[in-house]
Amino acid sequence: MTALPVEHAAVLEHLVDVRPYRHRHGTVFDVGTVAGHPGHRVALVQTGTGATAAATLTERAQAEFDPEAMVFAGIAGGLREWFVIGDVVVATKVYSYQGGRSEDDKFLVRPSAWSVAHRLDQEARRLPRGNAWHSFLPDKGEADPPMAYFEAIAVGDAVLDSRVSELAQRLHESYNDAVAVDMESSGFAHAAHLGDRVQAVSVRGISDFADGQKSTVDGKGGQLLAARNAAAFAIALITALEPVGQNPASEDGPRAGGPSIRNTNKAAGNARVGQQVGVNFGSLKGFR
What we know:
five-stranded mixed beta barrel; 13 strands; alpha+beta; 7 helices; Rossmann fold; single chain
C-alpha cells in the first residue's frame, strides 16, 4: 500500500513482470514479483492521502488477494531532532490521535492504537543487525546510509508543519512516544486488524521535520529520498518472508530464510543505534 505517486513509483522500481490487475470496482493494482526473488509476488496500489481511503483499499486488497502480509510504505514527518532526512521508521505502534471529547476548557484524548504484527516485527528486527536491507537501497554508495528505527507513530487527517501549533502541543502532551506523523497508517492498521489474521506493518521514511520548513525540504528532494528508502526497507522485509509455496519447516528444522546478517554495528557512549530493515510484501494466496 502507498499513498502518493512518489511512494508508488519507489516500490515499483523493485518489481519486475508487472501487469495491471483491475478490480471489479475500478481499483487498479500493479502485480509483479520482487526483482531477483521470483517467489515473492506483490500487489501494489496507490490509495491517495488520508486514513479513510487507506482503510477502504486495504480491505479491498485483503479480500481480493488474501495476502500473507501487508505493508504500507510511505513518507512521514519526523518529530525528533536525531532524525536525518531519509531515515526509516518501522511503526511498532500506530496511534489515531483525532479521537477525543471536547469540553468547554479542554480536549480529552481518546486514542485508538494498533501494534505491529509480531511475526513481521521479529523479521524486521533481524535485518538491521548487519545492515542487510541496505542492498535494496537505490544509492548504495552514499556516504551516510539511512538508519531505521522501531518506534510509535501518530496518525490523523492533517498535515502537521509546526512544532508550536495546538496539534503539535497535543501530540507532545498525549502521544509523546510517537516519533513521526503521517496521514494513512491508522486506516491501514484498522482495516488489517479487522481482517483478523492478516499480518501488517507500516514503514515510513522521514521526509521533513514538521517544523514549518516542509515545502523547502520537499523542494530539495526530501520526499523522493524518504519514499525510496522506505520502499527499500519494505522490499527487504518482504524477501525475508517465505516465498509462495515454500514449506515453513523442513526435515532439518525451522526455516532460516532472509538475507544473511553480518553484525558490524558499534556504538560508543550513549550513541543511539538505529535499526535498519527492509520490507517484503509476502506471498499472495488465491491470486488470479
